[in-house]
Write a structure and sequence with these properties.
By secondary structure, the chain is α/β, with parallel strands linked by helices. The protein folds into four domains: about 5-185, Dna Ligase, domain 1; about 195-315, 2-Layer Sandwich (D-amino Acid Aminotransferase, Chain A, domain 1); about 335-435, Glucose Oxidase, domain 1; about 485-635, TIM Barrel (Alpha-Beta Barrel), CATH 3.20.20. The strands form five sheets. Strands 14-21-20-16-17-18-19-15 form an eight-stranded mixed β-sheet. An eight-stranded parallel beta barrel has the order 22-23-24-25-26-27-28-29, surrounded by five helices. A six-stranded antiparallel β-sheet has the order 9-8-7-6-12-13. Helix 14 packs across helix 16 (about 515-530) and helix 16 crosses helix 19 (about 580-595). The longest helix has 24 residues, at about 740-765. The radius of gyration is 28 Å and the shape is globular. The relative contact order is 0.07.
């Protein structure tokens, strides 16, 4: 619905209305129409903006001031912006438009006394699929009364000509006269907690939902003034895979006089998790549904007031990181760490900036270091080779803009501005969130690590081996610092999505087999090197057909399956003539890592094994290139379908051990789709179900009788302490955990071992 009306209600709008209400307004309308929980709102369209500009005779002022800008000087940009904004804010809103605004403001509260609203800009070039315009215009919270509303609407319109907005349009190639501003007037939600989420990981592109949360109103997070909690949620299982908790000492809230005020967070809450696990899943599920509705990855602002979740903004993600291919030399001194917000590596001279300085001090190739980036700093960010901030999370202004600029960025370091000094040379790794002293960019391949760093905090010793799960080789060094027994599950899928980036059969068809092997070798060796000599168990590729189709070139080689979860995956691909050569490339990379690089801590695990015949054939394939089971090379099988349990004795003849894949095993034993929200909420998908536990007990008993080990690599032990205790009591040999849950869950395992030991001692003594 394209409209020429000056004011429209949000429920009249659709995503196609960007030309008249801007990206923010159109998306709010689309969300409202789709039934998502959006606070009620009305919008002043671009016709209102045109009416205001025309009545105030502002067009000539805008043109003349823009003509005075010297592109070589940020100061002239700031001066021109200031004069244009002053002209806007001196102008009166036409009386006929004032009357329409007042009528809509009263209607918004449905007969109740008009109360607080948020006044937000919505530019016609904002929240587009290829340019976010993040933070370029302004938002005003806790606005109340007609006079205050008129004032904030004028300020919103004038914010179309902030220095940052002018600069951003220049860089993005938007003509100033082609961009207009609508204004969203929305019922104010006085948030108890608020945050932002991405429906994919914007720094790596991995298909995890990233949820950030902080106390109070969301502006502190959006502006990068506080570092929020960050939670990673598996989009398939809706399990929380990782948590990064922050310290929050203050928040924005509504004061007693109605103004937005900064207040202290209660001391007992400063270090606490900002929202419950239940709420994390609820928010992530809403995000997933929004992505499904739009059919593309989304950046979503959310908040909670009085136990109800609201969506206040949604837009397509404009930049998903991939890195610049540089590597770090081993052994360089780490100065500070934070959150890797925009991937890639860059070295340069430190420039510490605060808002009292001229942006001109940041030269091409410098590393911009600041407590937080503000939208006004975009011109300097554009010149910087890398960016480091004290505050901020994955969705702060610095993170979003850095990804658009493809500039390596580390946020949330807490102390970068105090630990770094002007002029020193540093290296920024925006993938791992690490800042090194000097130029640490590698010019050669690093040597095999000969030492292992152990975490400084106390971690109890356990009889049960505790290992870690790995997906991202870039994070291996940090995980290797844990006092773990190695890597119980290295997922090879990340290697394909982030190192290879194309369908393996497509690469082979193009004559690029060697390139495929080399890229796989690079990713595998990175993990094996930092964990050496501890064991690394690599699970070979287990994409489903729909996931393979999403790869570059994948549509030419993948069938359409109605149920890929139980379709052509795992070992059935390896023995198929259509995929066998690609699997042989995986084996070739494994052999290269072990034999040519000397990283003989690498072992193999096969996923989704259906028959003993499959294992026999794959074993023969391995032996054909020199990968034969022996004392320092083991073959493990995932136990994730009922056949693995019922035929465990037969499978044991061809492997050294099993690793329980509790998600698939639970799904197939219970007949409960792991992606079903309904069944999940009803409790059918739960590895603690007695049928699943009996299957696990049966496997452990059978495998041990054959002299084989059994481990588990799912999230169950870290989520449910009672499940961890059950596994220990049954005699599980190892438990592999996500690094963020390692310390906590190992303590749970240690406690379980003590209880079991005490129980058995009492039984022996007859007490």
């Amino acid at each position: 619905m394209m409209t020429t009306k000056r004011i429209v209600d949000v429920n009249e709008l659709r995503v196609t209305d960007i030309p008249t209400v801007g990206g923010k307004g159109a998306n709010l309308g689309e969300l409202t129409m789709a039934g998502f929980p959006v606070p009620n709102a009305f919008l002043l369209t671009t016709s209102s903006y045109d009416h205001f500009v025309e009545s105030g005779k502002l067009t000539e002022t805008i043109r003349d001031e823009l003509a005075k800008i010297d592109k070589a000087s940020d100061d002239t940009l700031v001066e021109a912006s200031s004069r244009i904004r002053e002209a806007f804010e001196r102008c009166e809103i036409p009386k006929d438009l004032e009357k329409e605004i007042v009528a809509s403001y009263k209607r918004l509260f449905e007969g109740d006394k008009p109360s607080f609203v948020a006044v937000r800009s919505s530019a016609t070039a904002e929240d587009l699929p290829d340019a976010s315009f993040a933070g370029q215009q302004e938002t005003f919270l806790n606005v109340i009364g007609e006079k205050d509303l008129f004032d904030k609407v004028r300020k919103c319109w004038s914010s179309l000509f902030t220095a940052r907005a002018i600069s951003y349009r220049e860089r993005q190639g938007f003509a100033h006269e082609d961009v207009k501003l609508a204004v969203v007037v929305q019922k104010m939600v006085n948030s108890d907690v608020s945050g932002i989420m991405f429906t994919v990981d914007p720094s790596s592109g991995s298909k995890e939902i990233i949820v950030e949360a902080g106390y109070g109103l969301g502006e502190a997070i959006v502006g990068g003034e506080v570092t929020p909690d960050t939670y990673k949620v598996d989009r398939s299982t809706m399990e929380i895979k990782q948590k990064r908790l922050s310290v929050q000492k203050w928040k924005y809230t509504r004061g007693t006089d109605g103004s937005t005020v900064k207040v202290d967070v209660k001391p007992e809450l400063e270090n606490a998790q900002k929202i419950s696990d239940r709420r994390i899943i609820e928010v992530a599920e809403i995000g997933r549904q929004i992505e499904i509705h739009y059919g593309k990855p989304m950046d979503i602002e959310w908040c909670v007031e009085k136990d109800k979740v609201y969506i206040v903004q949604a837009r397509p993600i404009t930049a998903i990181g991939g890195g610049n291919g540089e590597k770090i030399d081993a052994g360089n001194e780490v100065i500070v760490t934070g959150l890797g917000a925009s991937p890639g590596i860059a070295s340069g001279r430190v420039v510490i900036y605060d808002d009292s300085m001229s942006l001109d001090i940041v030269k091409e190739g410098d590393i911009l270091v600041t407590s937080m980036t503000m939208p006004d700093m975009v011109p300097a960010m554009n010149r910087a080779a890398g960016i480091v901030t004290d505050e901020g999370g994955m969705t702060c202004h610095a993170a979003i803009i850095s990804r658009e600029l493809e500039t390596p960025c580390v946020v949330g370091t807490v102390s970068a501005t105090s630990l770094l000094t002007d002029g020193m040379v540093i290296t920024v790794d925006g993938t791992t969130g690490t800042v090194y002293r000097g130029n640490a960019i590698s010019t050669s391949k690093p040597e095999v690590a000969t030492t292992v760093t152990v975490a400084s905090e106390f971690v109890p010793i356990t009889g049960t081996k505790v290992m870690v799960n790995m997906s991202m080789p870039a994070k291996a060094e940090r995980s290797a610092a844990l006092p773990c027994d190695g890597v119980g599950l290295m997922r090879s899928e990340f290697l394909f999505t982030n190192y290879v980036g194309e369908h393996p059969v497509s690469l082979i068809a193009e004559g690029r087999k060697d390139e495929l092997i080399e890229k796989l070798t690079e990713g595998i060796s990175k993990v094996c090197r930092v964990f050496y000599p501890r064991k690394v168990i690599l699970r070979t590729s287990d994409f489903k057909t729909n996931e393979y189709r999403d790869m570059k070139g994948g549509a030419d080689f993948e069938p359409l399956e109605s149920n890929p979860m139980i379709g052509w995956r795992g070992c059935s691909r390896y023995v198929s003539p259509d995929y066998k050569e690609a699997f042989m490339c995986e084996l070739a990379a494994i052999k290269k890592v072990r034999d040519e690089m000397g990283l003989r801590n690498l072992n193999i695990m096969l996923p989704f094994v259906r028959t003993v015949d499959e294992v026999r054939e794959i074993t023969a394939m391995m032996e054909s290139i020199g990968l034969k089971r022996n004392r320092d090379f083991s073959l493990y099988l995932m136990a994730e379908i009922p056949a693995n349990i019922l035929m465990a004795e037969e499978f044991s003849e061809y492997c050294d051990g099993f690793s329980i894949g509790s998600n698939d095993l639970t799904q197939l034993i219970m007949g409960a789709d792991r992606d079903s929200d309904i069944l999940g909420r009803m409790g059918y998908f739960d590895e603690r179900n007695e049928a699943v536990k009996r299957a696990i007990s049966m496997l452990i008993k059978t495998a041990h009788a054959k002299g084989k080990s059994v481990g588990i690599c799912g999230q169950g032990p870290s989520v449910y302490p009672e499940f961890a205790e059950f596994l220990v009591e049954e005699g599980i040999d190892y438990i592999s955990l996500n690094p963020d849950t390692f310390v906590k869950t190992k303590s749970v395992i240690a406690s379980a071992e003590k209880r079991i030991m005490l129980k058995r001692m009492r039984e022996l003594s007859g007490n």
